[in-house]
């Protein structure tokens, strides 16, 4: 018998309002973020050259193996919590805490980081419209700049970053139906911009830029050649992060046994196709060497076309993309906290639901305020970009969980079965570990420090308040 119930009754039950289209839109909403417009150029210039399209495919294959395993668990255990829930159901509480803590890093710190970047792109967008915001109100107190006449400006707070977090927190407080409607509109807009770039840019592709398709290795691992394609996969993997957030919505999904696999796998397939086409067009418009040290590689590619106005549209798409990423990060974070709180590993306030909207409103408010303050007062260099390694670790645990559960509980009903077990889970584990191996050692160090902080909290609070341990002691 799974340790986690397949459904919950009474006051702790979230409202089921999501269908397959909503779930696919949620997945696309967070997968297609501004990272597509920046990381594609970085991976091409530093690692893979035009073969960044192959990097996308390798990353997508690793995601696909994990997605099939996610889909089996999401159908078996249709409650909130994503990989945390699945680890709890298979390999136990300690491992579940580790995965949950990973997701805290991905969603909460990631939302703050994206909010700060959103603010920076808003400033660029307004500059193109000949509008400006005071330096003091768009930078943290730890940032300063010197103007041309020698005046030193000091930041007070990043007001746009805080306001976008608070606005989106208010959106999700009203319930999933309103949140998903907002997300559907945002997804339609930014997918339209991606398609516009592909269609308009296609006719200006110069085939010369594809030779050599895989540049020769420059003498070190990850610097072009096939090792560069692999390192590029580890870099662009960050762009794919998001389909796992679909799994956090299981308890708010109608007919989750059918719709969760559709949402997870459907969003991944659509985004993979768009990413490969996007990378192909971008590296065909300009040489991959032109993207070196460029903060806006897509702008470099657009310069090879007569559509100068497209640069403004791309910045608008980045703003839209970041908005939906923040929205879904906030949704995913509150749902993970909801599950961990319900298990006693976090304070009970995070699992109390609003009597009308059936959302974890207190959790939303507390997390929204914390993340908005973090985004307003901390510079992006300190917050840092959420790396891929924590999510890759979560994927490894999900694939491992499928193997363990097939061995321990072979007769448990599985509305969706991962095909070709153990081949698919094993390939998922190996692919994710290979991409983890390709990442720099600093990334591993950050992960280990974060996990150490999490274990202190677990042993100091979670273990003593665990419902599972209390039940065992009865």
Largest sheet: 2 strands, antiparallel
Strand content: under 5%
What's the CATH class, please?
Answer: Mainly Alpha
The number of E-state strands comes to 2
The CATH topology label is: Amino acid/polyamine transporter I
CATH homologous superfamily caption: Amino acid/polyamine transporter I
Strand order of the largest sheet: 1-2
CA distance, first residue to last residue: 19 Å
Order of helices and strands: HHHHHEEHHHHHHHHHHHHH
Number of domains: 1
Helix content: 55-70%
Rg calculated over all Cα atoms: 22 Å
Structural class per helix/strand content?
A: mainly alpha
| Mean pLDDT reading | 81
Regions with little confidence, pLDDT below 50 for 5+ residues: 1-12, 381-385
CATH architecture: Up-down Bundle
Tally of DSSP helical segments: 18
Shape: globular
Describe it for me?
The protein has 18 helices and two strands. It has 474 residues and is an all-alpha fold. The chain has one domain: Amino acid/polyamine transporter I, CATH 1.20.1740. The chain has a two-stranded antiparallel sheet with strand order 1-2. The chain is globular. 54% of the residues are buried. The N terminus is likely disordered.
